[in-house]
């Protein structure tokens, strides 16, 4: 058997389905968010990024950068071991305390990524509970799905953000331990879960709640603790899962919860035990970002203002923007090839970078440009984006150029 | 159901089995490897680390630290997105080229950790091959086991480093695609796989080879490419898996192989697709470490000399050290409670930090102190360690004090 042929064929399948992804190589420019250098096939070129999850530009905040550099100079670049074997560094312990405080929980536990925190957190919690039933929203992130799969326990999938659909699933198993897993803010549609109502059901039917807030931490609530904190339901959530890699501008993920729960995951989760600890400089940088956003509301206000302004002008221009109540602005294309074409034209002709979002990140037929305004996308950049989008949407050579507008 | 009781009971079980782990909180001191500050219950105290996987002290190398700081200042602390969505940064692309070159392969792919690289790499490769049989060494790392489990394909476990046991497993399935997964250097026993013989069997029976070199990269071979490179078998290995978090002093993992294989994993592995890219400063730091170790042999020579000297003096003192041909020096205790006691005494009375290695990291009954001399553990530190070990091994109050010596 020629193994390489297997992999070549797998790639051909993707190309045939127009799902083959080409990564754009960029170099961001600290202090000039949202600008970056695109290393294009024709050489370096300055572009504007409109699709980053560094929502508040915190990865370029002077306090965050200097925290990383200072700790690197003082302790070195890496942790040098797993948490158990020489890897538990002071900046990491401090970060976990900071996260517990952020979410008003007794304890926090840091993983190497948000993906791993869901995968290891959910699978370990469900396994420890034993005969557990997981109730999972149909649009939950791949990392949640993998966590559930790894747990090996039964799961039922509820319709998206639909408590009327969720309730009978809970009611059907009165005697069984249950874990409701959901996201507070779904990143592709930009919609919010009915957190309070989910908590009501959890109380009524004796279920635990696990809430993924990765697209909300830093961004919502008076201290940036997320949607549950903003809505006053944080005390009703058993486990908050978050990331350090989006609004906090670094890398890593975490869970926060009761002391016993966090300690048990710490002791039982293979994906936590057998991996090198997060480097001290990253921990210090994340802590600096969290602390800044606990007291500064300016970044959040600017970002929300940018998002509101962008949605307003896009709607006025009859661009097919999906209405959202959050900072996510999905511009629907609903075709993989056209979505890629639109993205390519924006980059080539306008120096605007918005990655096409195709399957498997979103269901087929719902392909989109997912636009994420940051605190740094002011009026001039919004005007520039609008002009570019209108130009691309009007290209006569593009079959979709008039139809989305006509569909409005 | 009171869920918290479940977690409390799970912790009680660990305490009853003497498996409850207490992490030592340390702060390493850049420029003074292997010294660190231990934040002990009684306050900060200077200690010597003898159990780090930062084997060559590269996390504190001035070039590595300045690469991290320089890139953080230039681009910011985080990547800001997944690889597909604004996260493919130039330092990461450069790092992948460097890794491909290091291992003489066409391409490399970086993950957020070595754990994830095995988990996502093995599961994706095996799934793509289809009706694949995985042959796995019985002592393979947990991340390999999880990768195999996630693949969902059949697997057979071979006896440790035993080609005579492996051959019939391969021969039994002549028509089937097969993947042999093994480590070049097993980190707990410090022994080496018969890489060439495994490759011979792979050729004979038409199997692919996947070799985990996480405890060998940077440390063996003229350019630090690992055991397979040192032994001239690298061209016979289909996939090399390595880490940036041990000898290279940073964080992250990777695989290297053919263009088609790497591209297919890039396109199909959920654990790669749905996670934020490694931060540019970490990529730059890792690249600096790899480049340094490609040309500098001094760190490797010093480390090997330290390990040889330590093994020699420990054997002479009749301490129960397991013979190895590598830089790993396991001191056998074979009891979980005693292993923890020995570790505690070394730390408390001698300021020497060697974490006890208990189940599930090693099988029950094979508990040990795993000593890892680095390039920076010179003669004076070795003498100090030897005195401390002899002192601890002679404590009359310790039941194991005389028995390991008597067993020699």
Could you write a compact summary of the structure shown?
The structure is a homodimer of 408-residue chains. By secondary structure, the first copy, chain A, is of the alpha/beta class.
Topology record:
2 copies of one chain form a homodimer.
Chain A: H1 3-16, E1 26-28, E2 35-40, E3 43-49, H2 62-75, H3 83-87, H4 90-102, E4 107-111, H5 114-129, E5 133-137, H6 142-151, E6 154-158, H7 163-171, E7 178-183, H8 195-205, E8 207-212, H9 227-230, E9 239-243, E10 253-257, H10 259-268, H11 270-273, H12 280-295, H13 298-316, E11 329-332, H14 336-350, E12 352-353, E13 356-357, E14 368-371, H15 379-394, H16 403-407
Parallel strand pairs in A: 3-12, 5-6, 5-7, 7-8, 8-9
Antiparallel strand pairs in A: 1-2, 2-3, 4-10, 9-10, 11-14, 13-14
Helix pairs in contact in A: 2-12, 4-12, 5-6, 5-10, 7-8, 14-15
Subunit structure (chains A, B): Homodimer.
Keywords (chains A, B): Acyltransferase, Heme biosynthesis, Pyridoxal phosphate, Transferase
Cofactor (chains A, B): pyridoxal 5'-phosphate
Describe this structure in words.
- 2 copies of one chain form a homodimer.
- Chain A is of the alpha/beta class and 408 residues long.
- Chain A has 2 domains: 18-59 and 297-395, Aspartate Aminotransferase, domain 1, CATH 3.90.1150.10; 62-294, Type I PLP-dependent aspartate aminotransferase-like (Major domain) (Aspartate Aminotransferase, domain 2), CATH 3.40.640.
- The first copy, chain A, contains 16 helices and 14 strands.
- Chain A has helices at 3-16, 62-75, 83-87, 90-102, 114-129, 142-151, 163-171, 195-205, 227-230, 259-268, 270-273, 280-295, 298-316, 336-350, 379-394, 403-407; strands spanning 26-28, 35-40, 43-49, 107-111, 133-137, 154-158, 178-183, 207-212, 239-243, 253-257, 329-332, 352-353, 356-357, 368-371.
- A 7-stranded mixed beta sheet of chain A has the order 4-10-9-8-7-5-6, with helices on both faces. In chain A, strands 1-2-3-12 form a 4-stranded mixed beta sheet. A 3-stranded antiparallel beta sheet of chain A has the order 11-14-13.
- Chains A, B: It is an enzyme of class 2 (transferase).
- Chains A, B: InterPro entries: 4pyrrol_synth_NH2levulA_synth, Aminotrans_II_pyridoxalP_BS, Aminotransferase_I/II_large, AON_synthase_class-II, PyrdxlP-dep_Trfase, PyrdxlP-dep_Trfase_major, PyrdxlP-dep_Trfase_small.
- Chains A, B: Pathway: Porphyrin-containing compound metabolism; protoporphyrin-IX biosynthesis; 5-aminolevulinate from glycine: step 1/1.
- Chains A, B: Keywords: Acyltransferase, Heme biosynthesis, Pyridoxal phosphate, Transferase.
